[in-house]
Specification:
heterodimer, A: eight-stranded mixed sheet, B: mainly alpha, 2 domains
Chain lengths: 353, 354
Amino acid sequence: MENKKLVEVKNLRTYFFVEATDKQITEHTENFDEKLNALYAGDKYLKGKVPAKAVDGVSFDIFEGEVLGIVGESGSGKSVTAYSITRLIPDPPGKIVGGEVIFKGKDLLKLSFDEMKDYRGKEIAMIFQEPMTSLNPVMKIGDQIIEVLLKHEKISKEEAFKKAVNMLEQVGIPAAEKRMKDYPHQFSGGMRQRVMIAMALSCHPALLIADEPTTALDVTIQAQIIELMLRLKKERKEAAILLITHNLGVVAETCDRVIVMYGGKIQEVADADSIFENPLHPYTEGLMSSLPDPDKPKQLLQAIPGIIPHILELPKGCKFATRCTKVFDKCWETEPDLIEKGKSHFVRCHLHG
Amino acid sequence: MSDKSKEEKVSTTLFQKRWKKFKSLKRGYYSFIIVVIFYIFSFLLPFFVGRDALIVKYEGEYYFPVFKFYLAETFRQKEVQGEANYRMLKEQFKQQDNDNWVLMPVYPYGPNENLLDELTEIPPTHPNNVHFFGTDDRGRDVLARLLYGFNIGISFSLIVTILSYTIGVSIGSMLGFFGGKVDIFGQRLIEIWSTLPFLYVMIILSSILNPNFLLLTFVLTLFGWMGMTYYVRGEFYREKARDYVSAAVSMGAGNSKIIFKHILPNALTPVITFLPFAIVANIFSLVALDYLGFGLPPPTPSWGQLMSQGMQNIEKWWLIGTPLIAMFLTLLSITFIGEAIREAFDPKVYSRLR
């Protein structure tokens, strides 16, 4: 990783304030730090609510030109991490409580909505999970792409039109000029995701955040979309992709580095090869063993026992303690730190402490 | 799909689809055509119904009284004071039998014209082949008043509807989009405003001020915009949580772009479906106000005023019957339009399991 840092996420904490039972309130509000106390004192809305720590102290870097994957089960906080970077957290109930997101030397979390507008779409673009709903149903897709171009680039309408057609051709939409005048309902799911990608990449963002871009698509289309994203990435050397997924196959195929998240915390960070070959955290191990092995076709898949606990009932110590097969006493009491084990391979586990 | 058929494929917008569906609903579609034609026709009424001649040729010169006011002296009409009486002029020219002639509208009676001099009976007179719907108690032609009243009624209700919808939609979208305190306080203010008794305010206002077209539009708009805010607010609440809105935000769109370009077009369904019914309601309000005597000032032709005359002369059936039937037909056809629009905007075809 000799490349320059593009984004530096430092101790990011995004909490969702939810209503809770009295028992939960006493449990979760007793050891507040100053920041939370100040927050509660200043906002009546928070009364009687407890913070659900969707993302709790996450720090990582995104380097120029890399594909960084975030994997984890549903509810592990991976999407919230990504949304926090572009500040698309609905407030209320969500709030980015602390941390910094340094993008090209600027802390994005300190910008106003209007300043943020210049970054969204231009510097950081997003692809959403649901291509069926993330396009405006009453706007022609051409107009939707042109709108983004006109917002961020000083070009005329004709130029924007040409550029939009060009983008659609690049993402592999046949008869692009004709289809500019079509509405989203006239496209299939995979085609719509292509349109979303065209829209997201139209202003050449330095960072593309893809929030489970293939989850809603069927398998053949998934491969095409991943291939498309990588092909378009190759053309721009400095651009980075933050890929959020729970599909380990996609990770193996695409990512340079992988972050494994569980319970709102980073559990393991490593480059993709070492994650697959030498997983250190029991959770990562569990994820790997749940992959089907083509050499042993009849074998039952190894699932991680149990389900992810409710976010307010995560254990005090290691967040994974309730489901870990190698759990011991220390795990219940103190939370391990994220420590370096091998070259740029970090893990949060007492087994490696 | 071959290249050729691809080229022939024209994408239909949602609006085009709905328009096609609307056209297929015959009752609403024909009502729409009839109402629109009648309304356009009602602007050209002076050419068909009125007391002013279209063209007068008098001593080698042409006059166009429809566009310009001429004194009776212009045509040396000694019997008449003020504006020339063209029906009389026509008779005179006929008797003189020279080059002069008058071209009258098809139905040569104006809505505000007092016909006491020409009537043989005491008004209100029965319908006959001169005055198809008779005359009212001041000797004015009922058919002419009905037709001019149609134009005023529809224009009035269109203006009120558009104004109150503009206000209602913008306030509703503000409440729905910004939510929070704006929404809570805004809604309470709207609720308080809605409890103001419209009729009493109207009675008080019309006793202090002289009600005219502008004042009435203003007051009706003031009391008519609240209903739409509820629907638009709800639509905005629903739409703003949709993915395409966060997608638009993630692409750097600002608040106004999101409100007007992304959410509003998606939130217009209740606005459009309620539109015809709001027009009906506003026509009705004007008729009711006129009937009670708080509406447009007296000489203005209006249906409500005709009806109130009819109530005073209850045995003269044409005074109450004709405006009632006219109103019934108008409101019915607009309701048909509304029904068809609602149907056209309904994404589901009526179906059941069988």
